[in-house]
Every structure is written in structure tokens, then in C-alpha cells.
Amino acid sequence: MEIRRYNKNLKDVLQLLEGRFTIDEKYEIIVKDILSDVKKNGVDTIVKYTQKFDSASFKKEDLKVTEKEIEEAYKEIDGEFLEAIKEAKANIEKFHKKQLRNSWLDYGDNGEALGMKITPLKRVGLYVPGGQGGNTPLVSSVLMNGVPAIVAGVKELVIATPVNNENKINPYLLVTADIIGIKDIFKMGSAWGIGALAYGLEGVLEPVNKIVGPGNIYVTVAKKILYGTVDIDMIAGPSEILIIADENGNEKFLAADFLSQAEHDKMAASILITTSEELAKKVEKEVQNQLDKLERKEIAGESIKNNGHIIVVDNLNEAFELSNAIAPEHLELEIENPFEYISKVENAGAIFLGKYTPEPVGDYFAGPNHVLPTNMTAKFYSPLNVDDFIKKTSILYYPKELLMAKADKIIRIAEVEGLTAHANSIKVRTDEK
């Protein structure tokens, strides 16, 4: 990692991040074969791959988590976690309830009625990575993907998650799922788990309408291939954070936030843009100090080496110019009076304001969703939200008198497009005696 001064050339900065996330064709070939196998052979395929990659003793009878397993899970977790996860759930629920919309019907002056019907999706599948053999379960993924779906009105939610080598699911994950009301939990990971959600498993699992949740490259490719068979949330790349700091920034805070994303993945990106060269040097030194103390220092170190950047700019206007071009997943504004600068942000997945709102506040607890657009897609994409779990259906009604009055205009547009059957659909009604 090195400190560089912005040379007023956006292309040079964007090149620093190019090629960070690409999908090799070899993964698509592998995943297509797995999905074809799942579609053809169902449960037998799930058992085969689970035995090969997760647990050699896995059987068909182990596929679905039992009520007893959920009951036992509560005995293995601590009360402090239970209290924290319940409060986080309440915060996430409260935030997403504000996004709810209602069906509507608008009656016009000429007797027409036009509107929109809002319908929740019937079935949604949540993929939850097991994380290091089930030892680091992503409980926050259960909350962030499950709660908005429930708020939207989805009645049937299914979780797919890989087992450990003892055919078990982490108890913290099971309890979190139970707290938000998800009972159908299946022990199946990677691309075969995604395939099972999309195609269903005869006699065991009905297909879902949408699949959400993060995963490894095989999960990502499976979701990409199956888009169209089912809906998906997004094609997510490695995590990223961009921090804008002025001369008053705290180097310990900034270094800690810098590393908070670096520990995710060797391809994760951490970027600091600051108006102070002195602060830049302090942060660079502090990052190294804190890196040595991390449990995941090997991953974080590789991430910082390849995708860690500190950029010095002349003023905050340049900082926001860079930030909007990069369109980061997480944008922290550790500057004086950050609220005054919200309007300068055009592209970002989520904005964290001030020194005491680091990214983990959003990852776990505050309420806004942590499923965010990555890899510059914040230029056109939004965080996961309630709208992702509903369908919108248009409603139209014209009385006879209004159709007669507007028929010639509709017919003329149809004729210009060369669609005479469309035009005739109107004409037969105007000719009606």
C-alpha cells in the first residue's frame, strides 16, 4: 500500500480497482454440470456433493433441520447474543417497515381506473454461508435477507446452508433463523444448494421464486446462471469501503475501519481519501500496527497489499468527485459536519456519517440493509429492500365511451408500428353495433 496524490485524472484512480472481480469461465462450466445434476437427480445429487465436500457421513435423513436441533441450539448460545440479535432484528424490522407500499387505484374524470396491485412473492430462498466449517456463521445475513422478506409479506422462506463435518448447523445461525420465524432450514451448500432452491427437490422442497444471500464463487455463478428461472438479489463482488476524511480524522478510527473490510476477503478493497497528507501517513502506519493484531491478518494483509489505497486530494470537492466515480459499497464520511455533504454523494451503497458510525454499525445492528451494490454498481443499483420481495401488477379499466373517444389515436400508434392486429383489436369494438 502506498500513499498517492490525486493527479486530477479519474481514469488513473479507477484503474487501481480494475480486474478485482472477474468470473473465470471454468467456474461456469463446473457449475452448469452441478446444476444439471441437481435438476436431473435431485436429493441424490445433494447427498453426493455434501458427502464429498462437507461431511462424509451425510445421509438423506440429515437434509432438513429438525425441531429438536433448533431446541438444542438454544442451549448452546449465550444470553448476551440472544439479547443483541433480538434488538438488531427489531431495528431492521422498524427500518424496513417504512419502505412498505400499498396497492392503489386511481379513478379518472372520464371513468377510467388505473392502478397498481402489490403482491408479495410466495416463496423465497435464503442462502447463508457456513463460514470456516460452520465456526463463523453469518447470522447477520439471516437477519438482513430474512427480515425485509417477512416485512414485505413473504409467507414461505427457506434457508439453505452448508453443514460442518458432523452434519450440524451452527447453533447461533439456527437460533437467529428461529427468532425471525424461519423453520425450513436445509443442510445444503454451494452451487448444489442454490440449484435445489431453484429447481426444488421432489417430495422434499418446493422451488422458490427468488434466491438471496451471499456466497463463494460457485454460489455466485449458480445464481447468475439461474437468473430467469428464479429472480436473484444481485451478483455481488468482493466487499469494499471508501472513507473520506479531513485533517481532523482520527488515525486509529480510520485504520480500524480500513481493516474492517480488508479482513473479509483477499479481493476486498479499502480506500482512504483525505485532504491531509499528515493524516495519510499516520493512517498508513496505524494500519500496519493494527494489522498485526488481527486473527485474519493474512487475509487482511493480502487485501491491503493488492487493494488498499490512500489518496491525498486538495479539497473535499475532489474527494467526492473520486468517490462518486468509484461508487463504493460503503462510504464513510469522517469529516466535520458530515450532514452538510450528503447532497454531494451521488453513488454509494450506504453512507455512514461521522466518527462514531463505523461500517459495522450498519453490518449488524442499526437497521438499514447491509446487502449493498458492489463493484461500482451503486451507480445504478440499490441496497436490498422490501421492494425486492414484492411484485407490482398494473390495473387498467376503460369504459366504452372512453375507448370510443380515444380509439383513433390508439389505432394510429399501432399502425405506425405495423401491428395491424393491435389496431384491429380496437377497430372491432368501434365497429360494434
TrEMBL record:
One of its GO terms (molecular function) is zinc ion binding. Keywords: Amino-acid biosynthesis, Coiled coil, Histidine biosynthesis, Metal-binding, NAD, Oxidoreductase, Zinc. Its EC number is 1.1.1.23. The active site is at 329 (proton acceptor), 330 (proton acceptor). Gene3D superfamilies: 1.20.5.1300, Nitrogenase molybdenum iron protein domain. Binds 1 zinc ion per subunit. This is Histidinol dehydrogenase. It comes from Haliovirga abyssi. The gene is hisD.
